[in-house]
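--- STAGE predict ---
source: upstream dedup step, 1 unique chain passed
mode: sequence only
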Amino acid sequence: MTLKQYINGLQKFVEENPDALGMEVVTSIDDEGNGHNPVYYSPQSGILEDRTFTPSDVIELYGKDESEINAVCVN
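--- STAGE serialize ---
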């Protein structure tokens, strides 16, 4: 899913559920929804490779370049 698709989905959800704007945002801890945690962090760009995310503010420490940024972490 791209960030654009994610935002479009959120916008549609809010149009259909406007009171949700005042609700807490949570994320599921696994695919089956066995638990949930609050979202604490703002979105951040970075590099995703082999299921490991490196935030854009530290990519230079790992010998990476901004041109390699390919993902947005939402939590």
